[in-house]
Structure formats: structure tokens, C-alpha cells
Amino acid sequence: MNLEFNIAVHVLAFLTKHADERFSSKALSELVCINPVQLRRVTGKLVEQGYIDTVRGKYGGYQANVKTAKADLADLFQLFTAERTQGRLFTGNSASHCEISRKIGNTMAKHHAKEHELLMQYYRGFTIEEVLREILTAI
């Protein structure tokens, strides 16, 4: 799991619960307990994929639409983890004189791919609507 995926689920669950309301980025970032830059990075992708609507201007903001509550967590997980190739993920160096350092990256990349596949299977079929129901019924 990563922070952007968590933010996306939080935003979508919140907007689903308050489907008849519109929230500015400032108000929504405060309610989700993140800074507005993080919120805009996530909501940009959510708007682009059609999960939420946005209206610009003085009375604008973010709002749920017909797709929000039905968003599948596997699709969201894929959206927010597919581009996670920035930065260094594995140790080692294919040019190293050490056999382990030369091969560890490939080995761990295979495990990482399997991990991603398992997580996709786990999240497949869970919707924002179900997450919201779980949140609201939690004791």
C-alpha cells in the first residue's frame, strides 16, 4: 500500500458519504488530514479517470459522481502504483563483480511483480461503497 492509494480511497469514501456536497481543495485536504499539494496530485488522477468531478471557480470544488461509489479498489491500486518506478527500488548493480549484487535486482523484481499480482487479486471486487459501509459499521 502507498500513501496516494490511501488518500484516493479516503477521498472517494468521503465524497461518496457527502455525495450532494462540493468541497474546495483546502477544505477537502483538511478533512482528509493531508496537505493541499498531496490532495491535488491524487485528485488530478481521480478527475482524469472520471472517479470524481471538479468545478473551477469561487464556488467550485470536488464532488462525487455516479462512478465514485462503484470504484474498484484494484483499479485504484493499479492507478496509484503503476508509476512507482521513480527512485531506487532494489539493491545491487548488474555491473558489479559480486554475483549476488549482479542478480539480486532481477530476483527481487520477480517477487515484487508477484506481490503486486496478489494485491490486485485481494483488492479486486472491493468498491468504495463497501469500504464506506465497513467504516460506518466499525465499532
TrEMBL record:
Transmembrane segments: none annotated. Pfam families: Rrf2. PANTHER family: HTH-TYPE TRANSCRIPTIONAL REGULATOR YWGB-RELATED, WINGED HELIX-TURN-HELIX TRANSCRIPTIONAL REGULATOR, RRF2 FAMILY. This is Transcriptional regulator. It comes from Staphylococcus simulans UMC-CNS-990. The lineage of its organism: Bacteria, Bacillati, Bacillota, Bacilli, Bacillales.
